[in-house]
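User: Quick sanity check before I run a bigger batch. Here is a single chain. Can you write out its predicted 3D structure?
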Amino acid sequence: MLSQHTSDTNRDRAYADLRRRFADWDDVADAPLPALARAIRRGGLGPTKAVRIRAMLRGIRESGVPLDERAFTAMPDPQLWDTLVALPGVGPKTAACVLLFSLDRPFFPVDTHVHRVAIRLGLVPPRSNAVTTQAAFQESVPDTGARSASRNARGAPCACCAISAREWA
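Assistant: Done. Predicted structure follows.
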């Protein structure tokens, strides 16, 4: 959630500030909103993200899942996907990012840029939305290729790309 609507640098700063300010995730879930917003302010949208982060952590805890680094490691992929997208402020892209980058699960995050390129290349129908593009990519990317495919999908166009550099931006 910290990565939404900000740069990687600001996300990393906000995360470091959050971890410095609060000892563990239960402390974050129990924090007053102004204190949480101040801790993550360098990531942008602090007051909005504070509400969502606290609600998400409380929702996880209330479902019986402990707020620790191993909270989701034993949960099967389909159950984990459903658990994540049911949380407030968590959509398919955020859930896929958590699964791929935090838990090393074979999921393919689709942001607006990947979605736009997928439509332009004819990989999904022109009227599809990011959610249907995410589902299509999830089905078609092999488990062993999700991480590299996700990173390559956001890279700059190469000489053989059907999309010109002018259209890429």
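Residues 1-71 form a domain with the Endonuclease III; domain 1 fold (CATH 1.10.340.30).

User: Great, the batch can go ahead then.
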